[in-house]
Amino acid sequence: MKAIICEKFAPVEELLYKDVPDPVVGKGQVLLDITAIGVNYPDGLLVQGLYQMKPPFPFTPGMEVAGVISALGEGVKHLKVGQRVIGLAGLNGYAEKVAIDAMLVMPLPDSIPDDEAAGLITAHATAHHALKQRANLQPGETLVVTGAAGGTGLAAVQIGKAMGAKVVAVCSTQEKLDIAKANGADILINYSETDLKSELKKLNDGKGVDVVYDVVGGDAFDACSRSMAWNGRLLVIGFASGTIPKFPVNLSLVKGYSVVGVFWGSFTKHEPKAFMENMVELMDWYVKGSVKVIVDEVFPLKDTAKALHKVMDREVKGKVILKP
């Protein structure tokens, strides 16, 4: 089969598209013929050696896939050959086939196309976990989403609305804000044209922000950290700006809010039951139309470097998908 191979930590252009042996399905696993693959910002960090996880070489990146089950490993009873599913691979997703733990695979409703399904797991599941388990977001609270036109930002906008929040989208262009508005954002802030800190402080009659979903870091994080309401929750999702901010902890003390880390990958390992319960709820929302994956562009697997560049350069409005 064809797969993307990382033989050393290097720029994404040095990834290889080559023939490798087909995976062998193990006990408790299923073998998928992959139909679509979600591309995520951490994938680009991973292959450059900039992510928390550093797999041994050679490895294939790619954590979320849609596909059709072609074989069942020993002991797998709840799935069947020929079934359309989505799966959390962790690694090995940028390929034509993958063997996955059967407990991390879910049947796919016929109403969800493969391209959208492949982009559902990571971005939407991260946003869902962040807002549900980490922030305990309540109806009527104010939710600020930075990078609100990207894959996980749009997911947070949609899920925040589904959970009953007033959603504030923060983006760098009007085009991106328009996309966030179309996905449910109530208030729009263009931080390239206005002072983000000042705009945030106007929220809730000057009381500040209940929950921030920050994927950007850098100056955006700094502005948010000074604009939180009492009992607020500032969620640390990622650092798409490339700058990991330094947090003055006295702000949390004086203003009485929490800074909460969100590492969805660890959540899936530490709380697999809660993860699957979240996915069931997400699927229900998807079928009802409350959430949707917006596919920006689809690339063939051989053009993985181009796909990763689009994501890493923050040019994406929604999700980028790879097709084997």
Structure notes:
Helix 4 links the parallel strand 8 (142-146) and strand 9. The protein is an alpha/beta fold and 324 residues long. It is built from twelve helices and 15 strands. The protein has two domains: 2-120 and 295-323, Medium-chain alcohol dehydrogenases, catalytic domain (Quinone Oxidoreductase, Chain A, domain 1, Alpha-Beta Complex); 123-265, 3-Layer(aba) Sandwich (Rossmann fold). Strands 3, 4, 5, 6, 7, 14 and 15 form a seven-stranded mixed beta sheet that branches. Helix 3 packs across helix 11 and helix 10 packs across helix 11 (272-288). The termini are close together.
Order of helices and strands: EEEHEEEEHHEHEHEHHEHEHEHHEHE
Instruction: Tell me what portion of residues adopts beta-strand conformation.
Output: 25-35%
* CATH-derived architecture of the largest domain: Alpha-Beta Complex
Instruction: Tell me the number of helical segments per DSSP (H or I, 4 or more residues long).
Output: 12
Approximate helicity band: 25-40%
Gap between N and C termini: 10 Å
Give the class from helix and strand content and strand pairing.
alpha/beta
Instruction: Give the number of DSSP strands.
Output: 15
What's the helix and strand layout?
Elements: E1 2-5, E2 16-19, E3 29-39, H1 41-47, E4 64-72, E5 84-88, E6 97-101, E7 105-107, H2 114-118, H3 121-134, E8 142-146, H4 151-162, E9 166-171, H5 174-182, E10 187-190, H6 196-201, H7 203-206, E11 209-214, H8 218-225, E12 228-236, H9 249-255, E13 258-261, H10 264-270, H11 272-288, E14 295-300, H12 304-312, E15 319-323
Parallel strand pairs: 8-9, 8-11, 9-10, 11-12, 12-13, 14-15
Antiparallel strand pairs: 1-2, 3-4, 3-6, 3-15, 4-5, 5-7
Helix pairs in contact: 3-4, 3-11, 10-11
